[in-house]
Amino acid sequence: MKKTVITTIILVISTSNLICQNKASDLILKLEHGIELKAKPAYPNEEVSTYNFLEIFQNEKLIYKDESLTEYTIEDSLYPKLYKFKYHLELLIEIDGRPNKNEVRCFLIKNQKLEKIDTLPTFLTRPKDLDNDKKLEYAGFWQFGETWGDKNEVTGYNPIVFYELTENGIVLDSVTTKKVNSNIYGEFKGFYYNEQIEIPNEKMKDFSAEIERIVKK
């Protein structure tokens, strides 16, 4: 059946002021704690601000090199973002996912070595106390929803996922995630987007209301 992309959710995105971008320029970006990012423009002859062949250095030591054609973007002012936690650093960089929704790569760096790479959804806003526990959380969702059915009356399960900033890093807040999505969908159906779980479109008004709450809080 034909699927139609839902366009009712509006995300507010601002331009990064970290660097000045020029056509065909390499990306060179210095962050705190000796972290430096270098990358090549993905489309050198076009006004498209995505980059690939990312290199991450700490104190001039190369700790990661991406030799794939993965495209990184710095257009959203939320990224790149570097956090220093008790025993390690976490670096958030946005991935251009066109035609799908963008994602975030989280690079865990410890003792000048890359320990792990996680994939997170792009976040709706800067971290806020979203569940009134006096701790800061990020929130995001994995995919732009699509509709299908004879009258485009159903969509896929699309959870809003929460991540808490703790002294040990950016951690999935499973309690808040389960609570919020149970309120939206009637029961918790998992942490990831799932087209196999069909949701009546009328339920998505609660999804949109929660997105609005997060953005405006």
Descriptive keywords:
mainly beta, 2 domains, nine-stranded antiparallel sheet, 40% strand, disordered N terminus
**Count of discrete domains:** 2
Q: What portion of residues is helical?
A: 10-25%
Tell me the Rg in angstroms: 19 Å
By DSSP (H or I, 4+ residues per run), the number of helices equals 2
Strand content: 35-45%
Q: What kind of sheet is the major sheet?
A: 9 strands, antiparallel
- Span from first to last CA? 38 Å
Query: What's the number of extended β-strand segments?
Result: 16
Structural class: mainly beta
Spans of at least 5 consecutive residues whose pLDDT stays below 50 are 1-23
> Secondary-structure element order, as H and E?
EEEEEEEEEEEEEEEHEH
- Mean pLDDT, nearest integer? 88
Per the principal axes of the C-alpha atoms, what is the gross shape?
globular
What's this, in brief?
The protein is mostly beta strands. Helix content is 12%, strand content 40%. The chain has two helices and 16 strands.
